[in-house]
Amino acid sequence: MSKQNQREMPRDPAVRALIGQMQRMQLSRRKVLAGAGGLGLAAFLAACGTGGKSGSSESSKVAVTDLSESEKKLAFANWTLYLDYDEKTKKYPSLQEFTKLTGIDVSYSEDIDGNDTYYGKVQAQLSAGQDIGQDIIVLTDWMTDRVIRQGFTQELNHANIPNFKNLLPTLQNVDFDPGRKNSLTWQSGYAGIAWNKAKLPKGLRSVADLWAPELKGRITVLDEMRDTIGLLMLQDGVDIAGTWGDTEFAKATDTLKAQIDNGQIRQVKGNSYKEDFISGDAIAGIVWSGDLTQMNFENNDQWEFVIPEAGCTLWSDNMMVPVASPHKTNAEKLMDFYYDPEIAAQVAAYVNFISPVAGAKEAMEKIDPSLMDNPLIFPSDEDLANAHVFRSLSAEEETNYGSQFQTAIGA
Amino acid sequence: MTATATRRGDKKKQKLEDPRSTEEISAERRKGRMGLYLILPGMIVLALFFAAPVLVLLSMSLNAKPPGGEIGEFVPALEFGNYVTVISAYWDVFLRSFIFALIATVAALVIGFPMAYLVAVRLRGRQLLQGILLVLLIAPFFSSFILRTQAWKQILSDEGPVVTVLRAIAILPADGHLTATAFAVVCGLTYNFLPFMTLPIYANLDRLDTNLLEASGDLYASPLTTFFKVTLPLSAPGIFAGTLLTFIPAAGDYVNAALLGNNRDTAMIGQVIDSRFFKIVDYPGASALSFILMILILALVLIYIKRFGTKELF
């Protein structure tokens, strides 16, 4: 009996539950096997109807034992090109530093290639309260909203994150996570407009300029609804953070559809829009700010990015600890580490997105002073005033608007 | 007439006087039963990895969204309305997918048959050359499907060689382009599935008895007549297998339309299923679409088999 207890429990909660049951009831082997079969069948049936139990955060939350003390490790899933990387050593310098400092081994993976696809991958396990094998995941605001609302995250213990005080004041209270109880910003960025400087010397000033006849068939826009529709709504004079409704959304969707149907917009794409810019198929379009900096760096400064006159969208990606992750304290230590201004500057110098950490700008002086004036990494107050966050949508709105948007872009 | 009669008589006699002993017959039977046991693992695998998922798909496609439900929350039900909704919304996409797949299949046949004929018949006996050409035929499989399609995007891009030449000889207007068109999607499908067409035809033509072609010539058939009356009918099983192997995956293909198409008139059903599943989180709708696609392909294939099927295959 005691020997059994000394052994580390398997991570799968279903198996743990089964072991617990065995120890309590001293079942015969045959009964246990029958139980396992029953459990499998139950899991199978549960998989047929899908989770996402509305507002039932209690029922989907499983009591998790935090093994951070005994297991000095952590799994961190992030987007591609989103952490400082050393081409020569093929390692992540800041992670190495973290391991040296805390003794916690981090297995870092670039697993997340889209909010929707990642959600599609893990939602069944999360709604069953299972460990997805990651201790930190990073998702964009609106998906963070959904994931927190569905009870798929663990509440953070701010006592373990003293550097939390460095979070920019504008980001400390967001409507989807008041007081940042469940999430912490990783990086932020804008969606704005960009163009090829050689092909379009006169440049662009507003989203309406994208509909110029000479750009017919050479425009690409993002397939992220909140960014493309957000910019179109801003152009229509709508406050996207305010209380707009169906009419405003429909007007922007109609504009988008009309410009796709008349051939002005050639492509509606996610991350792969960069290839169209590089191949020359696209001359101008709606893009993400950090991408432009990286593309320019690799392709001789060919493009220019601006915030449209009517304003741009501001989004953030947020770190969260998924439900059933057994290394929450380790995860909090890592979050704290990346909120150290010097580390934040080190990351910002590589990823070129907006750092959410106050003091990173000053710390940048030591790393690369030329980046201190880059408005895409350290935005001016004026730029920030012109950047808007797309308001949170209810579950019904999200399905409804999402469906309209997908129909407009023909998929 | 008499010959058939005699043969039939022989058969009867054979049956009556089976030269085998009873022991031999029971050994034969045991062997038959052994065969059944041997296909059992295959059947189990099919049941686990094909039948069960199809059933889950079917039950999911009938799920309903509870009132005020959370995103991604569906409850088991018998909601046949899901099928009506997706058919009325996407019938045109289904039609387009099948038309694209059909054009690609015909194009692959027109390109693939001569290739297979060259390697299998014309170069018969020249093993080194045959080997090299066969490797070239299969070589595309050595690199990733996505990468090859991605490469086509570069080749067909506005600044690329193809568009430049076509514009220079005025086949394309000055502002014309190839990427993000239906043409590019069909080309991509044809290219990507070409080996699936060529290889079965090659395997078939490899066994073609060239004496028959000579005989046809001796009987004063022109080369064209020989091709249509002898070569083509004999290679029918290969063509049949090739068209099926091309059409079925092409109809459900997702990558070509996503990479080479646009957002207006090239969407194929695979893309729609992807967007309903991941973007809109409408699992029942996506399942219903997948199920309809499966049924439609099955129906089309059955009609095809009934009409053109050869005994050698089925």
TrEMBL record, chain B:
Subcellular location: Cell membrane
InterPro entries: MetI-like, MetI-like_sf
Stretches with biased composition (Basic and acidic residues): 15-26
Protein name: ABC transporter permease
Record key words, sorted: Cell membrane, Membrane, Transmembrane, Transmembrane helix, Transport
Main location: membrane
Region of interest called Disordered, as start-end residue ranges on this chain: 1-26
Topology class, membrane: Multi-pass membrane protein
CDD domains: TM_PBP2
Residue stretches making up the ABC transmembrane type-1 domain: 94-304
Organism domain of life: Bacteria
Pfam families in the record: BPD_transp_1
Membrane spanning stretches: 36-58, 98-121, 128-147, 182-205, 226-248, 285-305
Protein family (similarity comment): Belongs to the binding-protein-dependent transport system permease family. CysTW subfamily.
